[in-house]
Amino acid sequence: MVDNYLAHNINRFASKWLVLVIDVLITGIAFFVAYCIRFNLSLDFDINKLLVQLPIVAILSLVSFLFVGSYKGVVRHTGVRDVYNIFNATCLASILLISMVLFNKSINVIDDFTIPLSIIIIHSLLSFIGLTASRFIFKSIYSNFLVRNYKITKNVLIYGAGESGILTSNALTSNSRSKARVVGYIDRDVKKSGKQINGVNVFHEKELTQDFLVNKNITEVIFSIQNIEPNKLRVLVESLVDYPVLVKIVPPVEDWINGELKVSQIKKVQIEDLLDRAPISIKNSKIEMELKDKVVLVTGGAGSIGSEIVRQICSYSYKSLIVIDQSESPLYDLQQELKQNGYHNFVPIVADIRDKNRLNAIFQEHKPNMVFHAAAYKHVPLMEYNSYEAIKINIAGTKTVADLSINHKVGKFVFVSTDKAVNPTNVMGASKRIAEMYISCMQQENKTKFITTRFGNVLGSNGSVIPLFRKQIEKGGPLTLTHKDVTRYFMTIPEASQLVLEAGAMGEGGEIFIFDMGESVKIFDLAKNMIKLSGLNYPKDIDIKITGLRPGEKLYEELLANGESTLPTYHKKIKISKVRELDYEGVRSKIDELCIANMFFNGDTVRLMKKIVPEFVSNNSELCKFDKKDNKSKNDKARLKIVQS
Q: Angle at the Cα of 291 (from 288 to 292), degrees rounded to 5?
């Protein structure tokens, strides 16, 4: 180990001193050539005089190099900064040499040490050119002969001829392990078209066609445009996915390692990059005021949405944060993550929201001022035939937390709902809609302010379609899709969580806040893009198999129910739903009846859910039989009225 350490340091310092010696030799040769140029490319000058002056010039150059440190740069990574240091060193050497000549002229210490100013100027220029050229020659030799041995395996096109694109090119060409050759830049700026950057041609984006890619033998296109809007990036990337090239992207500057781009950070474009929303600002003054010095409780705090709500709350000046989840391992992972990030003012608690006594003890001990209720079962096909659990968690669990919030005088209760609660076609959606209705009933108590937030799918959440497709691609396919026309809204987890916090801050009680989900995405197109972005072809390499709608699944999602409309808020992405009036006493009585019936495993609970939520009509499910029976009884009553009349 000691021998390796010594060898490493010997090589390290030997290379550095070798560069210094070569630099001094180059300045010596440049001084000799300067004399030849001064005397019309002849040797018609006093050689003895030159031999006296040459050692002094070499010593002064050595002092300059040591002072500036121009010899310390790694030759194979020579860049603009190294050239700048060489320029400073040669200027300093010239200044020292002129000073030495003037000083010797006044006191005449060294004989024959009078150097014409023209020779000093020529020497400076030759030294600068020689020192710079030598570095780039060694860099080229190292790159082309010692490392690559001309084994270029891919031709790369960089999309973006700005500073980020140039740095990307430098990262590719200076990396010894990179087998990429930058063939050109693509840019929409007409002024840059036809020009060159470091010898690499710049092409206009209109020239980017399949013939262009084939003729240039392009295998990769790297997007290196900072601060580009997600919609524009989506259009640009989707214009390339049909071409036989691999599409990659450079991360934002703030994610570069120590401010420097590494080749390893250039990744293949993921579908999340195309669906991603505009970046959000984590700190918000209104949320700051709302959470300041408050005890905040989050249920389902280890889930995909709940954990992000916890992370964002941690950046504010709250008094205490209580994180509740029944799942031990994810809660432990979240605890370790928060500790590593320097957050310690939180209390992780393993608890089940269905356990009223346990929750009551937690409320008594910590006395929360604000509750974010994110705990829920949310998988549609699973809950369709596990209605007991859906009712017990999504309805009875919400009821328990809401009731305790009133009993313990909680200031605000923010309920995280879903777009599947709108005109539900499945048990999960209906259970969340009933929970919304119970929240509205509790608001009538005028004690705790109850606020509901409603939004669609979130990217990267547990059970999301994107991780499923990615696993299927890794296994070689096929990708399974329930219907060719199915569409979904998507939102990032950080954005959804911040909007939940913002809605909680602006809510005054009784509102259902609807989040702007943008445009809906056709899942079939999403699947095809994921295949293409993986460097594969559809359907040649990986096919898409249509399996049919799952029990309770919709073709498309809705954010507003029949008879609902929206009102704007100060936040452009948050609107308030104007909901229909409820028979609060009747609804609350039916919900109590549903929870009691569920406790005793009454098989009629789904029918009760349909009575509470009349718009709940099952789709592609065995539970459709309840709708048929109910419709038959309604038709029989209608016929009886006609006969009687």
A: 75
Neighbours of 103 (CB within 10 A): 12
Q: What is the pLDDT of residue 334?
A: 94
HEC string for 495-510: HHHHHHHHHHHHCCCC
With contact defined as beta carbons under 8 Å apart, do 559 and 422 qualify? yes
Q: Is the pLDDT of residue 271 over 60?
A: yes
Reference 23, options 118, 150, 131; nearest CA is: 131
- pLDDT of 188 > 80? The answer is yes
- Positive or negative, the CA dihedral 54, 56, 57, 62 is positive
For the chain, give every domain's residue range.
2-147, 154-269, 285-612
Query: Of 249, 269, 561, 577, which is closest to residue 424 (Cα–Cα)?
Result: 561
Q: Can you name the residues that pair with 512 across neighbouring β-strands?
A: 452, 577
Whether 177 has a pLDDT exceeding 90, the answer reads no
Separation CA 600–CA 226 (nearest Å): 59
- The CATH architecture annotation of domain 154-269 reads 3-Layer(aba) Sandwich (3.40)
Q: Is 420 a catalytic residue?
A: yes
Q: What is the pTM of this model?
A: 0.67
Could you tell me the fold of the domain covering 285-612? Rossmann fold (3.40.50)
Give, in degrees to the nearest 5, the angle at Cα 587 between 559 and 400.
85
Catalytic residue among 139, 378, 392, 420: 420
Q: Which residue's entry shows tokens 């605890």?
A: 335
Rounded-to-integer distance, Cα 367 and Cα 529, Å? 49
Q: How does pLDDT run across 500-556, given as a tens digit for each residue?
A: 998 898 888 888 888 877 677 788 888 888 887 777 778 888 899 998 888 877 777
Specify the pLDDT at position 570. 65
